């Protein structure tokens, strides 16, 4: 049958990916070469070679490309995207001071909207079809409404994890305004934004966060929390959560990079999962990226990017960094035993799963997304770039996704069967309008801080570095006679 020859598919039109390498990420991790994926009515209708498809089907040539599930980011502070790269040289301390103590309060609802808008667009551009917006800049309900409005204006699947770093969680989470916001959002028809609650447990002996957990439970909201962050959240908080019965399979522990065995055991025993933000943990100092520990304790992992104020906004970078960090630790542990590692434990296939099904499971959406299986929602990504020398030869699909591909190689993105990116270009995005909103936010922040503070905060002091004296470096003192230059060659070597 001859398939439809069109520039773009019509709304609701069946779509078929033809002749691609299909990375299913189902339970058996099927890997199909030269296979097709058929999309009908927003769901995956069939997978296999040379599929029969409706005559009005819109065909996409997936040859020389990889068809994979849409990726899932389980922890990204979208509201900070407006400050992309500003904190590239920060430590975690400088981040805390800037956002928590000094300037985070300067963000208006329209600034939250601008950051969320750009962050959401950035996510789908990189093939991330589901994003947890760890939105801890929601100082008021107006800020939260702006966050939702931005997300609803961009195709994608979003989880607004409501937080407020300017107020204690036991205050804002128990307020009638927050409960009203939750109920209102749940009543919105056809919204692409679901809800979680986001706050941290500091380890205060009084466990004041208890009432925030109780409020989340009363509202039926899963909790996501930064756990195991060096100097901020620790084992005491995990013990308090466990003793109070607040550690559940729905709980996502972000980072979990500086915990003891006891805490990892508690997370494993209660069925929780960890969102690993490797670029963040490596650079900011929460602790060493925890995948090698999670593997030891049998804790499932997903991947996340954390914030574009520092790092990249795509899960290709997250996969690459995670493999590198895990393998570096494994090599180091062997070297410390005067041994040599001959086989890596963490494989490219594992990080691709973390970026897809790992995230879907963490959010309780694994029955709907995260893998390419008949009946699931059609969140589908084609990675293909005929103009890139890095996209061939395509020998190891998992290795290619983890080490070779990048956002520019995302050719097509479908969300619920709707095309939002095609032929390596986003569809329906008014970049002029997005840029205008971001420019307005930057102008506001620069004027609020003042030019001197703006520049100083972006460029923190470089600590003094002490250089160790090298015993193999020749130094001379004028009071000590030097060897005569006689007998030296042109290169200064004494030949006598």
Question: What's the topology here?
Answer:
Blueprint (H helix, E strand, L loop, with lengths): L14 E9 L7 E10 L2 E6 L9 E4 L4 E4 L1 E6 L15 H11 L6 H17 L2 E8 L5 H12 L4 E6 L6 H4 L3 H12 L5 E6 L11 H10 L3 E5 L7 H9 L8 E4 L5 H9 L3 E4 L1 H7 L6 H7 L3 E3 L11 H22 L11 H15 L17 E4 L13 H8 L5 E6 L2 E5 L2 E2 L4 H19 L1 H8 L38
Parallel strand pairs: 1-4, 1-5, 6-7, 7-8, 8-9, 9-10, 10-11, 11-12, 12-13
Antiparallel strand pairs: 1-2, 2-3, 5-14, 14-15, 15-16, 16-17
What does this structure look like?
Helix content is 34%, strand content 19%. By secondary structure, the protein is of the alpha/beta class. The strands form 2 sheets. Strands 1, 2, 3, 4, 5, 14, 15, 16 and 17 form a 9-stranded mixed β-sheet that branches. The longest helix is centred in the middle third of the chain and has 22 residues, at 315-336. The protein is globular. The N and C termini lie far apart (89 Å).
């Amino acid at each position: 049958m001859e398939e439809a020859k069109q520039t773009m598919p019509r709304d609701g039109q069946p779509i078929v990916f033809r002749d691609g390498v299909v990375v299913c990420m189902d339970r058996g991790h099927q890997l199909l070469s030269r296979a097709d994926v058929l999309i009908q009515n927003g769901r995956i209708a069939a997978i296999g070679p040379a599929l029969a498809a409706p005559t009005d089907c819109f065909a996409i040539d997936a040859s020389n490309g990889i068809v994979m599930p849409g990726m899932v980011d389980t922890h990204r502070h979208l509201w900070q995207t407006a400050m992309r790269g500003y904190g590239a040289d920060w430590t975690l301390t400088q981040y805390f001071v800037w956002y928590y103590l000094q300037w985070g309060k300067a963000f208006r609802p329209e600034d939250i909207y601008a950051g969320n808008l750009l962050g959401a667009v950035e996510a789908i551009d990189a093939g991330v079809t589901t994003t947890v917006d760890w939105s801890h800049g929601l100082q008021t309900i107006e800020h939260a409404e702006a966050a939702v409005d931005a997300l609803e204006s961009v195709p994608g699947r979003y989880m607004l994890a409501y937080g407020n770093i300017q107020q204690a969680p036991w205050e804002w989470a128990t307020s009638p305004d927050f409960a009203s916001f939750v109920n209102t959002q749940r009543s919105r028809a056809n919204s692409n934004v679901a809800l979680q609650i986001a706050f941290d447990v500091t380890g205060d002996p009084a466990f004041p966060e208890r009432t925030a957990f109780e409020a989340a439970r009363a509202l039926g909201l899963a909790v996501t929390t930064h756990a195991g962050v060096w100097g901020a959240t620790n084992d005491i908080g995990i013990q308090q959560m466990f003793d109070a019965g607040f550690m559940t399979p729905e709980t996502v522990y972000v980072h979990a990079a500086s915990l003891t065995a006891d805490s990892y055991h508690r997370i494993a025993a209660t069925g929780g999962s960890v969102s690993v933000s490797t670029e963040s943990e490596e650079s900011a100092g929460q602790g060493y990226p925890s995948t090698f520990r999670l593997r030891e304790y049998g804790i499932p992992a997903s991947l996340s990017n954390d914030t574009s104020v520092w790092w990249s906004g795509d899960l290709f970078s997250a996969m690459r960094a995670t493999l590198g960090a895990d393998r570096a630790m494994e090599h180091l542990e062997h070297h410390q035993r005067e041994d040599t590692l001959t086989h890596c434990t963490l494989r490219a296939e594992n990080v691709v799963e973390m970026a897809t099904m790992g995230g879907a499971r963490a959010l309780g959406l694994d029955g709907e997304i995260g893998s390419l299986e008949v009946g699931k929602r059609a969140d589908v990504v084609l990675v293909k770039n005929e103009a890139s020398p890095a996209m061939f030869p395509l020998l190891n699909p998992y290795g290619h996704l983890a080490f070779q591909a990048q956002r520019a190689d995302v050719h097509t993105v479908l969300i619920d069967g709707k095309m939002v990116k095609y032929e390596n270009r986003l569809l329906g995005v008014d970049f002029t309008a997005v840029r205008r909103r971001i420019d307005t936010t930057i102008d506001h922040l620069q004027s609020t801080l003042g030019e001197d503070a703006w520049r100083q905060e972006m460029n923190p002091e470089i600590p003094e570095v002490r250089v160790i004296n090298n015993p193999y470096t020749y130094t001379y003192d004028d009071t000590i006679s030097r060897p005569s230059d006689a007998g030296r060659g042109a290169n200064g070597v004494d030949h006598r």
